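Bumping my old thread because nobody answered last time. Still need a sequence for this structure:
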C-alpha cells in the first residue's frame, strides 16, 4: 500500500494463510471467472450492517451490472464481486459490503498520512475497511487491503458513530486511509458530509484510481488528500500495482480543480521505479499540471509482502530523487521513512529558514504565522487554520 503502515493492536485479522494469485495486469475475465459457490458463501457471512446499495453503477440487464466507480469498470454477473472484493452484483443491482464496517480505526498524528501542510501537530481519527482496487506487490497493509470483508474482523461504526468517536478523541480531522478509501466510497461520502457539518476536516489517503463523476462529487466534502503517484511508467504500474497511469493523472488534476489540498507520495522501489529520468518526467508533470507548490514526499521502500526479495531503498537514491525534484522547480520536497533526515522539515522557499521542524510525527517548532513565513512574510500554501 503506502508508507503509512498500520502495524498496531487496533488491527485484528484472522490467523490463517490465504493463497494469493499473482494478478497484476487486471482484466474483467479474472473477475467473472470466480466461483459462484464461493462468492455466495462469502456474501452469506457479511454482517447485514455492512450491505448498502452502491452509488455508481449501470444495470446492463436483470443479471448483470457494470460498476462505474473506478477505471476497472468491472462487469459483474449476479453473485460476482469486483476487483475490489467488496462490491457484488445481486438482482441487477450493485451492493457494497463494507458500509459502516471498518476493520481498523486509530488516532494518528496528521503527519503520519503524510499531510505536512494542514494543521500541523493535530490528530486525525483514521478508519479503514477491507479491500482495494489495486494489487500493489509492496503493500504494507495487505492483511486488510488484499482481503475480503469476510477475512477480517470488523466492527459496526456508522457515520454518526465515527463523528462521535472523532470528537471524543479530540481530533480535528477524519482520515480515510490504510487500505483504499475509494472502495468504501459510500461510507466515506456519508461520513465526510456529516464531518463537514461538525466543522471537522476530511483527509483522503488514496491511490486516486477513481472515475471523474464520483471523484468530483466526493471533492465537495474532502479538504485534503495525499495521493500515491506510485510511478510514472505504465509498464511498472500495470505489472507491480495493477493500474494505468492516465486515470491517476486525471484524478490529480480533478483534485486540484475542485480545490482539494493535495500532497503526493512516491514510494521509490529499488530496481523497479528508481530511474532518475522517469522521476524527472514525473516532477515536471507535477509542476506543469498541479503547480510548483504541491508537496512531494519521496518515501523509502522496505521489503514487504511480495517484494521481500528486494532491499531497503539506498539513502543516496532518496537524496538524488530530491535533488531531481528540486532542480525541476518543486518547492516543497520531502524524504520519508528516513528518521532524522533534514528533508522531513519544511523550509521557506524564499529565505530558506526552517518553518516546521519535525521529530518523527511530532512538531518541535512551527514558524508559520497566519499562513506566512514568520521570517520573511512569504505565503506558505496549505491549510493552517481550523
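Sorry it took so long. Here it is:
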Amino acid at each position: 500500500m503506502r508508507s503509512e503502515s498500520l502495524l498496531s493492536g487496533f488491527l485484528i485479522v484472522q490467523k490463517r494463510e490465504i493463497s494469493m494469485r499473482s494478478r497484476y495486469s487486471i482484466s474483467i475475465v479474472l473477475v467473472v471467472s470466480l466461483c459462484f459457490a464461493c462468492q455466495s458463501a462469502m456474501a452469506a457471512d457479511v454482517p447485514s450492517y455492512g450491505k448498502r446499495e452502491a452509488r455508481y453503477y449501470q444495470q446492463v440487464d436483470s443479471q448483470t451490472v457494470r460498476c462505474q466507480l473506478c477505471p476497472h469498470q468491472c462487469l459483474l454477473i449476479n453473485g460476482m464481486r469486483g476487483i475490489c472484493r467488496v462490491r457484488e452484483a445481486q438482482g441487477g443491482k450493485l451492493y457494497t459490503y463494507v458500509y459502516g464496517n471498518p476493520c481498523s480505526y486509530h488516532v494518528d498524528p496528521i503527519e503520519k498520512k503524510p499531510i505536512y501542510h494542514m494543521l500541523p501537530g493535530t490528530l486525525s481519527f483514521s478508519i479503514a475497511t477491507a479491500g482495494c482496487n489495486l494489487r500493489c506487490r509492496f503493500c504494507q497493509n495487505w492483511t486488510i487491503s488484499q482481503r475480503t470483508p469476510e477475512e477480517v474482523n470488523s466492527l459496526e461504526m456508522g457515520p454518526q458513530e465515527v463523528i462521535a468517536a472523532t470528537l471524543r478523541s479530540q481530533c480535528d480531522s477524519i482520515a480515510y486511509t490504510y487500505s483504499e478509501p475509494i472502495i468504501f466510497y459510500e461510507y466515506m461520502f456519508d461520513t465526510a458530509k456529516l464531518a463537514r457539518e461538525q466543522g471537522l476536516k476530511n483527509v483522503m489517503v488514496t491511490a486516486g484510481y477513481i472515475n471523474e463523476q464520483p471523484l468530483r462529487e466526493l471533492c465537495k466534502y474532502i479538504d485534503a488528500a495525499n495521493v500515491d503517484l506510485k510511478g510514472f511508467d505504465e509498464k511498472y504500474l500495470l505489472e507491480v500495482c495493477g493500474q494505468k497511469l492516465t486515470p491517476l493523472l486525471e484524478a490529480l488534476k480533478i483534485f486540484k480543480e475542485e480545490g482539494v489540498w493535495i500532497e503526493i507520495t512516491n514510494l521509490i522501489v529499488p530496481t523497479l521505479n528508481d530511474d532518475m529520468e522517469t522521476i524527472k518526467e514525473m516532477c515536471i508533470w507535477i509542476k506543469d499540471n498541479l503547480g510548483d507548490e504541491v508537496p512531494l514526499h519521496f518515501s523509502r521502500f522496505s521489503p514487504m509482502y511480495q517484494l521481500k526479495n528486494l532491499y531497503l531503498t539506498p539513502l543516496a537514491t532518496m537524496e538524488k530523487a530530491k535533488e531531481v525534484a528540486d532542480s525541476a522547480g518543486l518547492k516543497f520536497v520531502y524524504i520519508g521513512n528516513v528518521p532524522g533526515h533534514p528533508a522531513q522539515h519544511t523550509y521557506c522557499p524564499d529565505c530558506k529558514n526552517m518553518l516546521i521542524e519535525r521529530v518523527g510525527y511530532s512538531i518541535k517548532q512551527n514558524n508559520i504565522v497566519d499562513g506566512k513565513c514568520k521570517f520573511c512574510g512569504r505565503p506558505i500554501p496549505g491549510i493552517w487554520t481550523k
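Confidence is low (pLDDT under 50) at residues 1-47. Let me know if any region looks off to you.
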